[in-house]
Amino acid sequence: EATDKELIEKVWKLKKYFGKDLFIPGHHYQRDDVIQFADATGDSLQLAQVSAANTEASYIIFCGVHFMAETADILANENQRVILPDLRAGCSMADMANRAQTEKAWEKLTSIYGDTIIPITYVNSSAEIKAFVGRHGGATVTSSNAEKMLHWAFSQKKRILFLPDQHLGRNTAYDMGISLNEMVVWNPHKEEMEEDVLDPKMILWKGHCSVHENFRIDHVWSLREKDPERKILVHPECSWEVTQAADLAGSTRFIIEQVRQAPKGAKWAIGTEMNLVKRLIKQFPDQSIVSLNPEMCPCLTMNRIDLPHLVWALDELYEGRIPNQIRVDHQVAQEAKLAIDRMLVND
Ligand code: 13P
Ligand code: SF4
């Protein structure tokens, strides 16, 4: 068994060997022992953009989850190969909407609302869902541009089907002045709406992030009681109650910016994935940073990309094999790209 030190040395060596032919993007939720090798770090939008801009590398080893690697493959040129070091690095939220469910929902919703509805999907979704959205004139959004993109969507149609994260959809629409009683939840298992709303503006897919649901309103209350000066900063994948009760809410990029700009001695309770919170604690030792949920909330699938898997992927490449290539079907990729491009031009 190689030690971590040996594995780390090996990655540096192989990175040097491949040079510009290899590009490693790393999401902010990745482990420290992986993120140290990233050529670019970012939130999901930034990573989609840097992958699109990089035309030099033949190999992209994506340190993130499956839907991100799919997006990278969709944006890559035909000579590039996208590799996910562990195929089990999925996303439970992305798995909450599949093609058959979405087609069924669309059939029912368009039979009720006719041509007044546009589908929008969070990038945390499979390529097939992005393709569905692209096919029907919609766009993708990320947590950094959701509000801008919802404004665009409402300039196209009267109402939105928002996939797959009900919380990002609800939180963003609410911030734009849409009231909760103009929103309705679509339950894909029951194939029906969960409330009776006559003329909804937002139809929210019943999906959520299993990491961010662990930040609860009782965490906010107990923190307010114990430490009222501490600012609560959360990701909009948290529930509406938590997001409303927090001081600030925004994407991973926004969270990092807030901490970066804060003065010495600032006190934060952060509601997002554990690796990012831990990294902020380390990088800003003169601020006081804790997790909003004291138990810390890791994303288990993000964590599947670890040092041994990264070394394995590099070894395979070195041996001339292409391991765990993520390849999106051509037709699906073309339609998904329509949805992604509508986001990139409007962002
Ligand atoms: P962002 O990186 O867009 O903030 O998304 C967070 C997330 O859950 C990624 O899986
Ligand atoms: Fe998916 Fe949530 Fe993990 Fe992001 S943090 S990859 S949305 S499960």
Provide a descriptive summary of the structure in words.
Helices cover 43% and strands 16% of the residues. Strands 7-6-8-11-9-10 form a 6-stranded mixed beta sheet, sandwiched between helices. A 4-stranded parallel beta sheet has the order 13-12-14-15. The radius of gyration is 20 Å and the shape is globular. A hairpin with a 4-residue loop joins β9 and β10. The mean pLDDT is 96. The protein folds into 3 domains: 113 residues, NadA-like (Rossmann fold, 3-Layer(aba) Sandwich), CATH 3.40.50.10800; 115 residues, NadA-like (Rossmann fold), CATH 3.40.50.10800; 80 residues, Rossmann fold (3-Layer(aba) Sandwich), CATH 3.40.50. The protein is an alpha/beta fold and 347 residues long. The site of 1,3-dihydroxyacetonephosphate (13P) has 9 residues, from loops.
Q: Which geometry do the CA atoms define?
A: globular
CATH level-two architecture of the largest domain: 3-Layer(aba) Sandwich
Lateral arrangement of strands in the main beta sheet = 7-6-8-11-9-10
Average residue pLDDT? 96
CATH superfamily of the largest domain: NadA-like
Portion of residues in beta strands equals 15-25%
